[in-house]
Design brief:
mainly beta; 6-stranded antiparallel β-sheet; 5-stranded antiparallel β-sheet
Length: 183
């Protein structure tokens, strides 16, 4: 498994496994504690695994957590997704940067998203399963959502959004979220 720093987002990493394929299909390691340690991440910090299933065009995000934030490992275990990370850490050298990835079941790559970054994705295939490994228990009171179509972020979503939660549809702009954070 290879770990590569994401240049647009300080502290973010893309972990690319080496699938072993033969006539039966493939085998791939999707988590390796030693590889995480090699880039300074504590593999024992992750306390919760979650899975979402989406159909083509479904858009989820942009989400982040208030308070201490939430670091996560994200992988598309089935299908393909367009994945987005926005650095909203005021003290980060990459503050305001965006990074885009296509995660898929073909590569089984995992993206590490540091706490304080917003995250969202769109399903590109008829079915897309997305796995999350999160570093602290979920608290809905800390959920923050930013408008997926905020012109300030100008995210190039590849498909029209066919479905999204009410929370995502009605999310405020980044400027509104930052203004609320200051008050």
């Amino acid at each position: 498994m290879k770990a590569t720093e994401v240049p647009e987002i300080a502290g973010a990493y893309l972990f690319e496994p080496t699938p072993h394929a033969d006539e039966r299909g493939f085998f791939s390691r999707t988590f390796d504690a030693n590889v995480l340690r090699s880039v300074g991440l504590d593999p024992n910090a992750f306390v919760q695994d979650s899975l979402s299933r989406s159909v083509r065009g479904v858009l989820r995000g942009l989400h982040l957590r208030s308070g201490a934030g939430e670091a996560k490992l994200v992988r598309c275990s089935y299908g393909r997704i367009f994945d987005v990370v926005v650095d909203l850490r005021a003290d980060s050298p990459t503050y305001g940067n965006r990074a885009f990835f296509e995660l898929s079941d073909e590569t089984q790559a995992t993206l590490y998203i540091p706490a304080g970054c917003a995250h969202g994705f769109q399903a590109l295939t008829e079915t897309a399963d997305t796995s999350y490994r999160i570093d602290r228990p979920h608290d809905p009171a800390e959920d923050v959502t930013i408008a997926f179509d905020d012109p300030e972020l100008a995210i190039p979503w590849p498909l029209p959004a066919t479905s999204m939660s009410r929370r995502d549809r009605e999310a405020p702009s980044l400027a509104e979220v930052l203004k609320q954070k200051e008050s």
